[in-house]
Design a protein that fits this description.
The chain is mainly α and 157 residues long. The chain is built from nine helices and no strands. Helix 2 runs parallel beside helix 7 and helix 7 packs antiparallel against helix 8. It starts with a helix and ends in a 7-residue tail after the last helix. The model has no long low-confidence stretch (mean pLDDT 87).
Amino acid sequence: MLIDLENYFGPEIIYLWLTFGVLPFWLTLIFFPNSRLCLIFISSIFLPIIFSLIYGYIIYLLITNGQNIFDSIDLYLGIENLHSLFSNDIFLLIFWVHFLAINLFLGSWVSRDALRYTVPKFFSGISLISIYFTGPLGLVLYWFIRIFYSKKISLHD
């Protein structure tokens, strides 16, 4: 059964499913942050479970392709090691899942926080789009917007 999955769900297909699959979640965060759909699918444990299953499957692909999963530790030893690690499609896909999951989690937090501080959808939407593409830069943009609407500067939540 897993062999059949391997034949259909290769790295390229997984990449495309992930890349286009997160877009409805981001659109929901931007346009319907208060909806039940957002609460059930985005702000719950649902997406982390899905991402962890995909992550586990990619690690399975890595192991069945004869790769050593401990090679990923080399990325901390220098940029050249990171570059050589990213030349492997499966390792690159693991980091893409990581990137998408963290940014979506961050977007979910910003969306809920914007509702709490009654940040207008336009500004929270701009922040969410920035987070989708740039992660931390979008978060800093939201933080500046949040200062204005919460009327306080807070370095922690």
